[in-house]
Design goal:
Low-confidence stretches: none
Largest sheet: 7 strands, mixed
Shape: elongated
Helix content: 25-40%
Structural class: alpha/beta
Oligomer: single chain
Number of strands: 7
Distance between the termini: 10 Å
Length: 191
């Protein structure tokens, strides 16, 4: 019997990327608390949230592979999440301008009562950005659903001087490592 897959994410980019792993999957938006205790290491946050997301869906789908994910941008130990408006997006992009930040994706896979989670980090260096570049990008692409206020797969690609690590991680799903971890978990769970 074929294994069924569930992607516990409402991100259209993750849906698109998950098709590299399988075309046959269901999408269920997770319903879980995303409030974190004070003092959590920023680099641990995405994996903690990914675990919560995956477990919230897996409890009602124990015999299916459930994948949860969360992605953040980190600079100087500060998490840059999704901007709530143009002003916040402008400030984020201005802060990232001319600097190297880290994109961290946390991923959790649940299957047959077993759970496996990991984090993937990718460093992204931005060119210095002008005010007009930032304003034009925000006006055209409205990056309010993107961590750090940019998408590597849209006009945000014009900001990037270099990427060290997994490109797809910057889009929000480290698919190569995810595929290998799914295979590992399926073997651990006995098929």
């Amino acid at each position: 019997m074929a294994i069924k897959y569930i992607l516990a994410s409402s991100s259209p980019r993750r849906h698109e990327l998950f098709t590299f792993i399988t075309k046959d999957f269901e999408v269920i938006s997770p319903d879980c608390d995303e409030v974190l205790p004070d003092g959590v290491d920023p680099y641990s946050v995405p994996e903690m949230l990914a675990v919560r997301k995956a477990l919230s869906v897996a409890k009602s789908h124990p015999d299916e592979i459930v994948v949860g994910c969360d992605t953040v941008v980190i600079l100087d130990g500060v998490i840059f999440g999704k901007p709530k408006d143009e002003s916040v997006a402008y400030d984020m992009l201005g802060t990232l301008s001319g600097r190297t930040h880290t994109v961290v994706s946390g991923v959790c896979i649940c299957y047959k009562g077993k759970t496996l989670s990991f984090s993937q980090e990718t460093d992204v260096e931005f060119y210095p950005l002008s005010d007009s570049e930032i304003k034009s990008y925000i006006a055209e692409f409205k990056p309010f659903d993107k961590a750090g206020s940019y998408g590597v797969q849209d006009g945000g690609a014009l900001f990037i001087k270099g990427i060290k690590g997994d490109y797809y991680n910057v889009m929000g799903l480290p698919i190569a490592k995810l595929k290998r971890e799914i295979d590992k978990l399926v073997m651990l769970a006995g098929g």
